[in-house]
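Section 3.1: Structural characterization of target chains.
Under the original work plan, the team committed to producing a structural model for every single-chain target entering the pipeline before any wet-lab resources were allocated. The record below documents one such target. The sequence was received from the expression subgroup and is listed exactly as submitted; it comprises 222 residues.
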Amino acid sequence: MTLDILALAAHPGDAEAFCGGTLIRMAQQGYRAGVLDLTAGVVSAEGTAEERLAQAQVAAERLRLAWRDNQHMPDGRLENSLAARLTLAVRIRELQPAVVILPHAEEGDPDQQHCRELGMEACFLAGLAKIEEYSEPHRPKRILLASFFAETRPGFVVDISAQFELRSEALEAYSFEDAARERMEALARFHGSRIGVRYGEPFVMKEALAVGDIVSVGGAGI
């Protein structure tokens, strides 16, 4: 199994909230998208680990994912340890994604912050030939940081207007409270308004984007 796009998430439901519409849109465009959840996410959510994993698989079908798995790391106690970094580096080598999506996490909980740190370091380690002898080195071409908070100033926003209902169906696989769902919809509308569309998902990049035509660059305008 190899992927074009891999989203790393601290808990089931995170990828759906942060970049679910984008994953659906990319799958609809023919890319192989996948999600690796690091924990079962039971500490701050209802249900058992088994129930959460089952919900994640239901959501995976609604996201049109080619692949989804769970790393079974300790929920609520996720740490950026050497063992965790090496484990993720090997998974990245196996899946060979061109793009890795991580939580922006500056506004998130500690698990999401550690997920970002782990992902960043694992992507680097995955490209080192001598770090592990049983798999081939692979380093993603690009890391994107997904944030769904109003305070984030994105590098770009993906139009998910056509994918919003499917994204909502994926979120319905979990027991989110009505207030949380309403907030996520409001934020999608807010970020969509930044580029003149109904719904959007924002991303932050460490690198600069290459633009060859400043006249046709998309956006809401002034």
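The mean pLDDT is 93.
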